[in-house]
Design goal:
Layout: H1 9-28
Domain Ribonuclease J C-terminal: 4-41
Organism: Clostridium sartagoforme AAU1
InterPro entries: RNase_J_C
Length: 41
């Protein structure tokens, strides 16, 4: 698990956002607003 590691959430959030933006733009040729929310459980 990730319990004992320091996680830089902003990097994960930025990478998810960029990947989704690229994917959606490729499919629709539109640029939607993407707001990633990462919750720790």
């Amino acid at each position: 698990m990730l319990d004992d590691k320091i996680i830089e959430w902003y990097l994960i959030k930025t990478n998810v956002k960029k990947a989704l933006e690229r994917y959606i733009y490729d499919k629709t040729k539109r640029r939607p607003t993407i707001i990633p929310i990462i919750m720790e459980i």
